[in-house]
Design a protein that fits this description.
Number of strands: 11
Strand content: 5-15%
Radius of gyration: 24 Å
Number of helices: 15
Bound molecules: pyridoxal-5'-phosphate
CATH architecture of the largest domain: 3-Layer(aba) Sandwich
């Protein structure tokens, strides 16, 4: 493609993106395509000769767009958000334009040095301890794997890197934890059987007494406690494991404490919502995702460690061809994680944080929490609905109830309710199971979500629940 064509298309695409952002509410939030539909419309083999950009773009609109679920839609209440922002999109365009690969300082000093500064900004914005040092990873899953590998190496004096596993190391996490912990345990070679699931309390948070008991039992059997993976903001119900009780247990037994705050971490930017971080100074590592709730395009995961030398020793490799004269004066982030090649992700953070300011991001966080609380209040006050977990920050777990129905019938009822809500195209919710109760998850953290969208979600939920009730009434008559 010549430069003039690039310029022309780029302008058109930016216009298209601006229109998309403006009209986002006209799209059905959850894609309505059937499995295989998109695939069937893309040719089986690559074109032999280049095609015009206009033709390619038409296919993007006709084939790809119908198969898109609109994460930036204000009716996105599913899972957790993956919020972008105009600022972040602009920075991503520049990043793509530069096409930089920042594996070492020499390959683009700005990529490395801006990342160092952004990690300090983020650390201070969240009120994390000053002795934490950060690095950007692609995802929280990767950061957690790095934590497990570091924990493994610290406790064996870097011997597993040399010799492989000689002993049985144990990892502890709550039964509510994210699947990435189990995945990391498998990949890092601990073996899934050595992942110990700790019971939770009535708020779905890890029970520290049960943790201590599990550790003692393992010690009695000659097993080696290696790592505790605590969660701030579990996926099911946004439960917070009590770090101030878990931390001292880890310290006493010299166990690595990893904290997964992938979604909820952003809340700490508002000091009055920081309570859940109490005890975070005990952590050896901590991860949260600016790509979820901090307006930064996927992917961008902020990973903090107390002892970067352990991280570097775990991953360091130094083939001759990567040695440079600057090595003793600079950071080479290739040694701070799994991959060698690194995207220049710090740029979008810089754009987002500068454009919004800390106060701007704080305001967004406070609004989302307020709106979720509003929704929870409606549920609490309505006789046909109940909360199925304590409302935490931005997540409301609830279900529709009807007198006389058993657990199985309530599950069927709420599953139907969820399907019909999502078929409306106006809102998208997902589900979980809490204490055996099939529950709807209303996650209020999309950047475009306003009061009216949350009110609309509540209205649709009530209307559809009533419709289902009426239909059930008809069939029994
Ligand atoms: C979203 C989430 C993850 C996974 O994040 P990725 O960046 O997609 O790997 C892990 N843990 C928690 C608690 C999460 O909310």
């Amino acid at each position: 493609m010549d430069n003039d064509t690039f310029r022309k298309n780029a302008h058109q695409f930016v216009d298209w993106m601006a229109d998309y952002m403006e009209n986002i509410e006209s799209y059905p939030v959850k894609s309505k395509v059937q499995p295989g539909e998109v695939k069937s419309r893309v040719p089986d083999s690559a074109p032999q000769w280049g095609e015009e950009m206009d033709t390619i773009f038409k296919d993007f609109e006709n084939i790809i767009m119908p198969g898109i679920s609109h994460w930036q839609h204000p009716g996105w209440f599913a899972y957790f958000p993956a919020n972008s922002s105009p600022e972040s999109v602009l920075a991503e365009m520049l990043t793509a334009g530069l096409g930089v690969q920042g594996m070492i300082w020499d390959t683009s000093p700005s990529a490395t040095e801006l990342e160092e500064v952004m990690m300090r900004w983020l650390r201070d914005m969240l009120g994390l301890p000053g002795d934490f040092t950060g690095v950007i990873q692609d995802t929280a899953s990767t950061a957690t794997l790095c934590a497990l590998l570091s924990a493994r190496e610290r406790i064996t004096h870097f011997n597993i890197n040399e010799k492989g596993f000689q002993q049985t190391l144990r990892v502890y996490t709550s039964s509510q934890t994210h699947s990435s912990i189990e995945k990391g345990v498998k990949i890092a070679g601990f073996g899934r059987e050595n992942l110990v699931l700790i019971d939770t309390d009535d708020r779905f948070a890890m029970n520290p007494k049960a943790l201590e008991q599990a550790i003692r039992k393992d010690l009695d059997q000659g097993l080696i406690p290696c790592c505790v993976a605590a969660t701030l903001g579990t996926t099911s119900s946004l439960a917070m494991d009590p770090l101030d009780a878990i931390g001292p247990i880890c310290q006493k037994h010299k166990i690595w404490l990893h904290v997964d705050a992938a979604f909820a971490g952003t809340a700490a930017i508002a000091p009055e919502h920081r309570e859940f971080m109490k005890g975070v100074h005990h952590a050896d590592s901590f991860v949260f995702n600016p790509h979820k709730w901090m307006l930064t395009n996927f992917d961008c995961s902020a990973y903090f460690v107390k002892q970067p030398d352990i991280l570097r020793r775990t991953f360091s490799i130094l083939p001759e061809y990567l040695k440079t004269r600057a090595d003793d004066q600079v950071n080479n982030y290739r040694d701070w994680g799994i991959q060698l090649g690194r995207r220049f992700r710090a740029l979008k953070l810089w754009f987002v944080i500068r454009s919004r300011g800390v106060e701007g991001i704080r305001h967004m966080v406070r609004e989302h929490i307020r709106l979720a609380q509003w929704f929870a209040d409606q549920v609490k006050d309505h006789k046909d609905f109940e909360l199925t977990a304590p409302t935490s920050l931005t997540l409301v777990c609830f279900r529709h109830v009807r007198p006389g129905l058993g657990e199985d019938e309530l599950t069927t009822l709420n599953r139907t309710l969820l399907e019909r809500i999502n078929a409306s195209g106006e809102v998208y919710l997902t589900h979980t199971v809490l204490n055996g109760k099939y529950s709807l998850r209303m996650s209020v953290a999309q950047r475009n979500t306003l009061q009216r969208h949350v009110e609309n979600a509540w209205q649709i939920t009530r209307e559809i629940a009533r419709e289902i009730e009426d239909q059930a009434g008809d069939t029994t008559l």
